[in-house]
Amino acid sequence: MQKKHSIYHFLIVLSVLGFHCNPDLSPEKLEYQQAFRALQDWNLLLLDLNKNAEGYRPPVSARMFAYAGLAAWESSVPALPHAQSLAPQLKGLVLPSPIDASVCIPSLCLDAAYRTLIPYFYAHGSASVKEKCLQLSAKHYKTIDPIDSAKIQASIRFGTAVAEAICHWSATDSVGHQAHLLNYDRDYRLPEGNGLWRVSETDPMLPLLPHWGGARTFCTVLSDMNFQAPIEFSDERGSPFFAQAMEVYSVASPITDEKRWIAEFWSDDFPGLSFCAASRWISIARQAVEQQRTSFPLALETYLKVGLALNDAAVNCWFVKYHFSVERPDSYIRRHIQKDWLPLHDAPPFPSYPSGHASFGAAAKVVLETLLGKNLGLTDRSHESRKEFSGAPRRFDSFNDMAIENALSRIYMGVHYRMDCEEGLRLGTVVGEKAATLSVWKSALVTVK
Question: Which of 264, 297, 208, 274 is nearest to 405 (CA)?
């Protein structure tokens, strides 16, 4: 009864805002345009929230975007004639029965799903977050013809129910659930030995999410991933490992203006100023579907699969990081090359191998290439308004070029070896291929581009 009351309360609040419909568009085309705009707006809000949310470091953010993309997809299935639910492929996920397409307004299903899911994931900013969600829903509601209240109510109920079911399922992941509240584990005991990662001397933060390798995945199984070991550690000058560190040192001695720009452009390590390294690829996806004016179904599939790929890249990458526990270049360089050497920015508080940036970038780029095209040029404007670091837009000829530069940026930053970046790219590519080929349509012949 309480849910019913809240839906009607929402409708009453919105009714005073006025409505308009565009008579020049067919109902079907109009509904998809409205839904596309809603999808873009909600993801922009999520990116904005991600900049300031306490505890939303890359693995946590990647996980949130996976669940958000899943909620958006499942709430829209009734509006997509050839779409199929992922619930049968996701153990333990029980969703409400879909409503009939004849009573489904896709933008309102989306609104209800996001408006329910976002306060769940950002509960620590509850009042302001809920207000932002209500304002955004009000904006979209103004585009809906208010005459058919039965369709409106059915769509809101369904979107809400889908999101509630997905939030409930999210809570059954004991590692990932509410991880933003405890990023750092003071009880975790790091393995001891020469060449193993230690808490930084210059920025002594506790290990970040050392158990994340046990979080839920959507497209991959850890035991099937064929992880590759890093180059054998050695203190010897002239050894392959020493050469890895020497490259990092040489790049920074001195670093060129172009490489400094690349390092800061892809850093995404500035809480309060920028979203994180995983969320960066949601920003890129958002720009790409906007530039291409993709269909609503294709945009929806893009957000779904990029989110799932980012989540699984984080879980696999973090598992490997803490399995091999390779020390960061800065500590090795200070010990063997220059005792007062520092990277451009402090190294993140977790082991070096493989690179999370490279893993996220490769996983997302495979999905984006598969869905939007390998040779899609894009000017990345993710941080163009920032003045605190080099966020000026950069032009790229392909998603692959973006992923490679993103990986190399960590060498330029001084926080990763080349082997970290190469394995991150390889690992992310495997994850991305699995996400990109995930079956979401009832027929392989369906084309949504």
Answer: 264
Residue whose token pair is 């940026």? 409
The reply to whether omega before 81 is within 30° of 0 (cis) is: no
Q: Are 300 and 309 in contact, with CB atoms under 8 Å apart?
A: no
- The answer to whether 197 and 105 have CB atoms below 8 angstroms apart is no
Please tell me the number of Cα atoms within 13 Å of 381 on its side-chain side: 9
What are 201's two structure tokens?
């001397």
User: What is the gyration radius of the CA atoms in the chain, in angstroms?
Assistant: 23
The 10 Å CB-count burial string (b at 16+, else e) for 8-47 is eebeeebeeeeeeeeeeeeeeebbbbbbbbbbbbbbebbb
Within a 10 A sphere around the Cβ of 390, how many other Cβ atoms? Answer: 17
DSSP assignment of 350-366: S--SS-HHHHHHHHHHH
Count Cβ atoms within 10 A of the Cβ of residue 374 and give its class: 0-12 exposed, 13-18 middle, 19 or more buried: exposed
Could you give the CA distance from residue 249 to residue 334 in angstroms, rounded to a whole number?
A: 10
Q: For residue 15, name the pLDDT band (cuts at 50, 70, 90).
A: very low
Tokens of 405: 């530069």
96: preceding bond cis by omega (within 30 degrees): no
36's CB contacts (< 8 A; 6+ apart) are: 294, 295, 296, 299
**145: Cβ contacts below 8 Å, ≥ 6 apart:** 19, 21
pLDDT band at 444 (very low <50, low <70, confident <90, very high): low
Do the Cβ atoms of 371 and 301 come closer than 8 Å? Answer: yes
Model pLDDT, residue 7: 52
Question: What are the start-end ranges of the H helices in 53-105?
Answer: 58-76
For residue 375, the tally of other CB atoms under 10 A from its CB is 11
How far is the C-alpha of 406 from the C-alpha of 277, rounded, in Å? 9
Query: For residue 66, what are its two tokens?
Result: 């996976």
| Tens of pLDDT, residues 112-128 | 999 999 999 998 766 78
Widest pairwise Cα distance in the chain: 77
Task: State CA 179 to chain mean position distance.
Answer: 15
CA distance 71 to 167: 9
400 secondary structure, DSSP code: H
